[in-house]
Every structure is written in C-alpha cells, then in structure tokens.
Design a protein that fits this description.
This protein has helices at about 10-15, 30-45, 65, 120-130, 150; strands at about 15-25, 50-55, 80, 85, 85-90, 100, 135-145. By secondary structure, the chain is an alpha/beta fold. The strands form two sheets. A five-stranded mixed sheet has the order 1-7-2-6-5, with helices on one face. Strands 3-4 form a two-stranded antiparallel ribbon. β3 (about 80) and β4 form a beta hairpin. The longest helix has 14 residues, at about 30-45. Keywords: ATP-binding, Iron, Iron-sulfur, Metal-binding, Nucleotide-binding. One of its GO terms (biological process) is iron-sulfur cluster assembly. GO terms for molecular function: ATP binding; ATP-dependent FeS chaperone activity; iron-sulfur cluster binding; metal ion binding.
Length: about 150
C-alpha cells in the first residue's frame, strides 16, 4: 500500500493549521529568528481571536523561547497522550492563542544546542511537525535553521 502525500503523520497533524509560513535564509546570523518572532507577534495582535504557533527548528541555536520570554525553568513542554503540548507565551494573560515550541525546551541547560546532522536532524524536525499538539491555528510560523539544504528538506 503506498502512502499518499495527504496520509502522513505530518499532514494529519497540520490539517488544522490554516497557513504555514517558513522564515528562511541561506546563512546564519541574518535575523531569521527576529523576523519570525515579529511576524508571529504581529499576526497574533492582528485579531483578538487569531491563533498563532511558532516552531523553532533551528536545533543548533534555539532562540525563540528567549525572544518570547518563556525560557525560564517554569516553562516546560510536556507529553500528553496526543503529543507534545507547546508552551503558551500568552498564558499569564489568561489566553492560549500564542503557542511556542522549540528544541530549547527539551535541553537540560540554557545555551545548550543539538549538534546532530543529516538524517538525525531531519528526523527531529519531522517529529516536531508530526508530534506537537497545536490544535486549531490560523498561522504557524516556522523559524528554520541556517542554510538552503536543511530548510528544503
């Protein structure tokens, strides 16, 4: 039995996402994370009902938790029966419309990074896309790692 594009864990998980926006560039240090952060915040502020997710797949330099102010020990991603539950950057305001997921939440110490390459790195990115429980989102902003090869995969 062949698998169609519409029948993968990633496509099934992302069916409830209306628009996916990739932020990418051919090299590091050019402001991708800053652009992704500002884009997500502006989309969130554009409507009192907008639901926005931001996914940090820059495994070697995850900065999105720090940029959203959710990098302290009180912010933790946890597993549920339906996948990883993202951290909500707006939870203190009583909302759950701004979801954040990053490998930074899974590392033991702030400033650590993942030095995986190739298939292992791509498998982790696929796992983020298939296992994070986003729920209904209007937008999912994806902050990609530097380089054209990794972003294309």
């Amino acid at each position: 039995m062949s698998t169609t594009v519409d029948d993968t864990p990633v496509t099934r998980r992302l069916q409830s996402v209306k628009k996916i926006i990739l932020v990418l560039a051919g090299k590091g240090g050019v402001g991708k994370s800053s652009v992704a952060t500002q884009l997500a915040l502006n989309l969130y502020a554009s409507s009192p009902t907008a639901r926005v997710g931001i996914l940090d797949v820059d495994l070697t330099g995850p900065s999105i938790p720090r940029m959203f102010g959710v990098d302290g020990p009180q912010y933790a991603v946890h597993q549920s029966t339906d996948g990883w539950v993202p951290v909500y950057a707006d939870a203190e305001a009583g909302e759950q419309r701004l979801a954040v997921m990053s490998v930074g939440f899974l590392l033991k110490k702030k400033g650590d990074s993942v030095v995986w390459r190739g298939p292992k790195k791509n498998a982790m990115i696929r796992q983020f896309l298939s296992d994070v429980r986003w729920g209904e989102l209007d937008y999912l902003v994806i902050d990609t790692p530097p380089g054209r090869r990794n972003a294309a995969q």
